[in-house]
Amino acid sequence: MATTIGIMDSAYFVGRNEIVAWINSTLQLSISKVEETAPGAVACQLMDAVHPGMVPMHKVKFDAKNEYDMIQNYKVLQDVFNKLKITKHVEVNKLIKGRPLDNLEFMQWLKRYCDSVNGGAATNYNAMERREISKGGKETNKKAAAPSQANGKSSGPAPRAHASQNTRRNDAHSTSAPQRNVKSSSNSGAHAHDEQITELKVFIDSLEKERDFYFSKLRDIEILCQTPEIDHLPIVGAIQKILYSTEADPAVVAEAQALVMQQNQPLALSPIDEISEEKPNRPEAQKRKSIDCFEAFDMGSGSRPRLSDISDVQYCDSPLINY
């Protein structure tokens, strides 16, 4: 299902123009920008199109202008998600700000979901009739119907006129042609500027999103390095040196590598440690001397040493005490 699609899914590669065209054809609207879906009413009706009767359209506000009314629309949408057991998390605080990238991604996901339900086809769905019961729905229908009526009038057959009238019209057309060309060129230029501004907004939003992502990763690394169990390690000091460097200096990386190399070098024993390691061998040497002294008594007399001869042991560096 579309509720579990990843960020690299093909749904998120659908362009803005295609999304806007899909919304207009499905709901019989005349929006020109994807940010116009920020109030949430469009998302509610798209869910009503694929699940007829599931959305209480009388609670949807197409005339929502402030954040409170927009949040009410998203509450209606969230209730529908809960009824359908859809686990999609809706970032309302970002959507109601009208940022192009956030609203584009949400509409891309919604299109993917609608396509997964009955192939995205809303059979026998009258969008204008359903919108009539909504708050501000009638005004929205009038706005949507105005462009279609204008297109119908312009495409209708023109009445016949006399030759004199045609001549007058041609003369008037010849005089007003430069003015019309100027207006059309200015309109096309304004439209091109709007497109460029929208693209720049989307690009800036994507850069900010990427910046926040990497900053959060660096913050996690910083918190990990501050753990008392590992903050004394040289590798942690090297990481902190790179994190807290204020300039892009290659010497900082070299110093961090030097700290890591110091950790891998074997530690040299101090003279005190060497003496402490030799101390356990002393009693063994003294014990060996004592045994040699007793053996000397045995070899000289052929018998065990007498108690009276015990005083001579001290001359063999024995640890025994002479009383």
UniProtKB/TrEMBL annotation:
Tagged with keyword Electron transport: no
Signal peptide: none
GO terms classed as biological process: cell division; thigmotropism
An annotated GO cellular component: microtubule
Principal subcellular localisation of the protein: cytoplasm
MF (Gene Ontology): microtubule binding
Residue intervals of the Calponin-homology (CH) domain: 13-115
EB1 C-terminal domain segment(s): 182-252
Keywords: Cell cycle, Cell division, Cytoplasm, Cytoskeleton, Microtubule, Mitosis
Record region (Disordered): 129-193
Comp. bias intervals (Polar residues): 163-189
Compositional bias of kind Basic and acidic residues: 129-142
InterPro entries on file: CH_dom (IPR001715), CH_dom_sf (IPR036872), EB1_C (IPR004953), EB1_C_sf (IPR036133), MAPRE (IPR027328)
Subcellular location: Cytoplasm, Cytoskeleton, Phragmoplast; Cytoplasm, Cytoskeleton, Spindle
Family recorded in the similarity comment: Belongs to the MAPRE family.
Protein name: Microtubule-associated protein RP/EB family member 1C
Source species of the chain: Rhynchospora pubera
